[in-house]
Amino acid sequence: MLYAKTNIQGVVIDVSTTHSDEYNLLVAPNDPEVANILAKKFTTAGTSTQDILDNSDSDMMRVLEDLVDLLTEKRLIQFTELPLAAQKKLLGRKWVRGVHNGHDDSLMTNNDRFIEGLDEDPLI
Questions:
Q1: Rounded to the nearest 5 degrees, what angle is found at the Cα of 10, between the Cα atoms of 8 and 13?
Q2: Which of 12, 36, 49, 67 could cross-link to 4 by cystine, CB 3.0-4.6 Å?
Q3: C-alpha R_g of the chain
């Protein structure tokens, strides 16, 4: 969501991703005035749209992980319906997040076999 700061005439003069007393008008990023302001900000900051997409990838991945969790909790999908590669990636990320946050979800069920090299993929 983008919020605009306007001048006395109501013309958009700046935009922000956070709502405040100054930035109180909700605007669409595809509005021509807003798009021009965003383009100037990218140019001034030396940031490309690719950099922005790259930086948002991890946030978007977390949204997708939460969405999969929600859909499986509500039994709208079964986790096993996802392609095997997707299951492996999601389980791996969930385990790493758990370890990172100090909550070992024990998704790696047989660590001894993996450590000894008897199992090539401990997540499935």
A1: 90
A2: 12
A3: 22
CA torsion, ordered 94, 98, 103, 108, to nearest 10 deg: 60
Q: How confident is the model at residue 47 (pLDDT cuts 50, 70, 90)?
A: low
The DSSP 8-state label assigned to residue 79 in this structure reads: G
Take residue 51 and report the two structure tokens written for it.
Answer: 């950099």
Percent of the chain with pLDDT over 90: 39
Query: How far apart are the C-alpha atoms of 68 and 57, rounded to whole Å?
Result: 16
Task: Tell me the per-residue pLDDT of 19-33, one tens digit each, with 9 for 90 and over.
Answer: 899 999 999 988 889
- In the 8-state DSSP scheme, what is residue 98? H
| pLDDT beyond 60 at 113 | no
| 31 vs 50: CA distance, rounded Å | 20
Check residue 103 and report its DSSP letter.
-
What are the φ and ψ backbone dihedral angles of 6, each rounded to 5 degrees?
-115, 155
Alpha-carbon dihedral 82, 85, 88, 90, rounded to 10 degrees: -60
